Amino acid sequence: MSTIKKAIIPAAGFGTRLLPATKSQPKEMIPIVDKPVIQYVIEEAVESGITDILMIIGKGKRAIEEHFDRNFELEYNLQQKGKIEELKVIQEISQLGNIHFVWQKELNGLGDAIRYGRFHVGNEPFAVMLGDTILESEDGTPITRQLMDHYEKYQSSVVALEEVPQELVSRYGVMGGRQISDNGLYKVDQWIEKPHPSDAPSNLVIAGRYIFNPEIFNLLEIIPTGVNNEIQLTDAMRLLLKDQDMYGYHFKGQRFDVGNKLDFIKTNLLFGLKRPEYQSDLQAWIRELAESL
Ligand code: UTP
Asked: Is there an atom of ligand 1 within 6 Å of 30 CB?
């Protein structure tokens, strides 16, 4: 049994890197093959044993709410037409756990978005899962589940990490720490936001999944506005580290940041290749394309 039952999924951001697609459509609703990104995230939460999800949404994000609500008209229509497979697929979406929505009034950054979850979460440890990021694990155990298992052992906040080329660390929050086990667990001693590659303590960066002790909320209240005039989650994490142990988990698997165009295109191709019904056609087409380039 896990003590972690709740997850906050921030999904209110403007998504400027995907404009114009995100002008009137939430980036979290952008499809990867045939499912919006956010559905992959919710499925990961549910498979991890999370039973209570709070999604932070903003202006223009109503489509997210509707996606997870029932659509009786569509269900009736599919039933009438005998489209039973499709009916099953859409009914399953509305049964994905207990999802609540809160509106972030002003988009003051990721740290601010998480603050909106305080009353919902209360005094419990909780997960944070970015709504525009898909994580795939090598062994099939959801990464959030793996983080939860580490939490159970250490009772300390733990953050998913991915390795990136050293020259790219300046785009991310970077961990400094020492490895404490063969399974990719690190004891963290610093978090540095977007360092110059020569100043970075490692090339292990924050990968969009976190488990926090509830004390992080107090720190999110007191930190000043940071980079880009936003409340930065990394600033609160740095403060938490002064009071509590924190761990980083370099998971085995892959991260897909669907919020940038190149990753979005690559993710669609890769996930398309994984679908048995498209695999051989897509492979043949990619080979043909590669030869003609
Ligand atoms: P990003 O850093 O990707 O920001 O947010 P963004 O605004 O969504 O996208 P760009 O950079 O303009 O293209 C990381 C996560 O935090 C959420 C986003 O929805 C995303 O899941 N977020 C960000 C909020 O919920 N509120 C905010 O104020 C900012």
From this structure: no
